[in-house]
Amino acid sequence: MLRENAADLLAFFAVAKERSFTKAAARLGVSQSALSHTVCGLEARLGLRLLTRTTRSVSPTEAGERLIQKVGPHFDEIEIELAGLSDLRDTPAGKIRINAMDHSLDLIIHPVLKNFLHKYPDISVEVCCDYSFVDIAAEGFDAGVRLGEAVADGMIATRIGPDMRLSVVGSPAYFENRTKPETPRDLTAHRCNNLRLPTNGGLYAWEFAKDGETLNVRVTGQVTFNGVYPLLDAALDGFGLSYIPHDLVA
């Protein structure tokens, strides 16, 4: 359907419903002459007369009645749906999709989720636990929880939690015959459990900072995981040292 036909059909339906150009023009907020010109233009393009006009009344022709019966209901549905959209302004509704690491889910999202769902019963929440920094917009997510330094270009970041501390941890069994590391460089002499980052496939370098200086340490070990919870289990089982969020061991 040509774009101009949509507006002209609305004009025709208004006249057919009111059975009067005068009343329809008042309803649409246009002049009677402009409305008459619009309907005549539609009839000219279709090559059919849609309205029978007399000095006393206006009524649909056979072609006009067919349009009203076949096409009119679709326009009514559109108007109903457009009116229904106003509900979204007053009552939040729909689905929110969030991309986050499993630890972020436990630490930040889960504690507020119960109250949020209770406050907004018409909103459903879908959380995808993923360590890869996916393109939030391209993958259809509304938001993503990221570490502060891992925000993609063009994204708007808002702090939703405190700075996260990481700690090097090991089990008593692991340290039975080993000396505890005193400095980050001592870690190279220990068996460490690695974290592989799915975004680039590389192993995470353990990051340390002191007095404004940073140090990245590449560690080695027998096991590698792609999540912090397996790293915690590996440390507890004595596989080696793990570098994990401090709140998991505090």
Please describe what this structure looks like.
It comes from Pseudomonas syringae pv. tagetis. InterPro entries: LysR-type_TF_proteobact-type, LysR_HTH_N, LysR_subst-bd, WH-like_DNA-bd_sf, WH_DNA-bd_sf. Keywords: DNA-binding, Transcription, Transcription regulation. GO terms for molecular function: DNA-binding transcription factor activity; sequence-specific DNA binding. This is Transcriptional regulator, lysr family protein. There is one protein chain. The protein is an alpha/beta fold and 250 residues long. It folds into three domains: 67 residues, Winged helix-like DNA-binding domain superfamily/Winged helix DNA-binding domain (Arc Repressor Mutant, subunit A, Orthogonal Bundle), CATH 1.10.10; 57 residues, 3-Layer(aba) Sandwich (D-Maltodextrin-Binding Protein, domain 2); 83 residues, Periplasmic binding protein-like II (D-Maltodextrin-Binding Protein, domain 2, 3-Layer(aba) Sandwich), CATH 3.40.190. The chain is 37% helix and 18% strand. The protein has a three-stranded parallel β-sheet with strand order 4-3-5, covered by helices on one side. The mean pLDDT is 86.
Short description:
The chain has 250 residues and is α/β, with parallel strands linked by helices. It has helices at 3-18, 21-28, 32-46, 62-70, 72-84, 86-90, 102-119, 228-236, and strands spanning 51-53, 58-60, 94-100, 123-129, 143-144, 166-169, 194-195, 206-210, 213-217, 224-225, 242-245. The model has no long low-confidence stretch (mean pLDDT 86).
